[in-house]
């Protein structure tokens, strides 16, 4: 079974998200959207759009979005079959969160790694 197939997003906390977002926009050219992050469209070697994006987002320090992890960041990993992977992780004794989510953006599930970091697993919708 395929497990992780790529990185879907990086989410982290900041003491002052607005200031940090503005810094990244001004100095690194990241086009921060009103929702607080950016979506980088994948391209092929010729610069043509390719199926997929990677999301980058800044959250307020202490935000519940990263709970129950202990780190100020969450990495979202793309997976091929979320439900099969979550079942395999449970069988392997991993701390899989009971809650999962199915939305127009795909299927989401979470596991806590041995260091207490929340790891987000994402199965993109068909065609992405």
List the helices and strands and how they pair.
Layout: E1 4-14, H1 17-28, E2 37-43, E3 49-60, E4 73-79, H2 82-91, E5 95-96, E6 101-103, E7 106-112, E8 118-123
Parallel strand pairs: 1-3, 4-8
Antiparallel strand pairs: 1-4, 2-3, 5-7, 6-7, 7-8
Summarize the structure.
It holds the Pfam family Glyoxalase_6. This is VOC family protein. With 128 residues, the protein is an alpha+beta fold.
Structure in words:
The chain is built from two helices and eight strands. The chain is of the alpha+beta class. Strands 1, 2, 3, 4, 5, 6, 7 and 8 form an eight-stranded mixed sheet that branches. It is globular. 19% of the residues are buried. The model has no long low-confidence stretch (mean pLDDT 91).
Second CATH tier, the architecture: Roll
Strand content: 35-45%
Can you tell me the residue ranges where pLDDT is under 50 for at least 5 consecutive residues? none
Biggest sheet details: 8 strands, mixed
Our count of helices gives 2
State the end-to-end CA separation. Answer: 19 Å
The coarse silhouette is: globular
Number of domains: 1
Would you identify the CATH H-level superfamily? Answer: 2,3-Dihydroxybiphenyl 1,2-Dioxygenase, domain 1
- Please compute the radius of gyration using only Cα atoms: 16 Å
